[in-house]
Amino acid sequence: MSRFNTALALNLVLMLLGATPATAMAADPQVSTEVFVEAGDNPSFKLQQAPAIEYSTAPATPPDTFLQAPMAVLLVAQLDELGQVSNVMVARSSGLREMDRVALAAVDQWRFDPVVVEGVARQARVRVRLTFMPTAEAPPG
Question: Fewest CB atoms within 10 Å of the CB: 16, 26, 45, 58?
Fold first, then answer.
């Protein structure tokens, strides 16, 4: 049975028993975002600060993920001259493959302000740290 069908069946049973689905399922974790550059990320020019995010999507947390403590994944994103992410990779894993995957998928869709150096738009590398923080009590079980 797929995850969706399992979750749907569980919610139906809970409703029939008089419980609300929210009491049985963990809430999505909140995600904090930090974008920065480190020395050496862009060797051909010096970037003082990371470009601002123009568009971002929140990571779609896997439905069966329950966090007991904050987890962070550090990504390195390569930006093209227009500020679009052309490549993204994990620099430091969260320790959970699924969390890393959702972080990669989300950041891959982001857009940043273009990086302009001496009047010329440039490709640039930035680092993105996504920290997933738990928001609910442990599910009964």
Answer: 16
Provide the sign of the torsion angle of the four alpha carbons 117, 123, 124, 130, taken in this order. Answer: positive
Predicted TM-score (pTM) of the model is 0.73
β-strand partners of 127: 36, 76
- pLDDT higher than threshold 80 for residue 28: no
Question: 41: how many CB neighbours lie within 10 A of its CB?
Answer: 15
> Of the candidates 103, 107, 124, 127, which has an alpha carbon nearest to the alpha carbon of residue 115?
124
Residue range 6-11: mean pLDDT, rounded: 48
Q: Is 102 exposed, middle or buried, given 0-12, 13-18 or 19+ CB atoms closer than 10 A?
A: buried
Helix, strand or coil, per DSSP, at residue 40 = coil
- Which runs of consecutive H residues, i.e. helices, occur in the chain? 3-17, 97-107
Burial of 81: CB neighbours in 10 Å, binned 0-12, 13-18, 19+:
middle
d(CA 76, CA 115): 16
The pLDDT tens digits of the residues spanning 59-83 come to 887 666 677 888 899 999 999 999 9
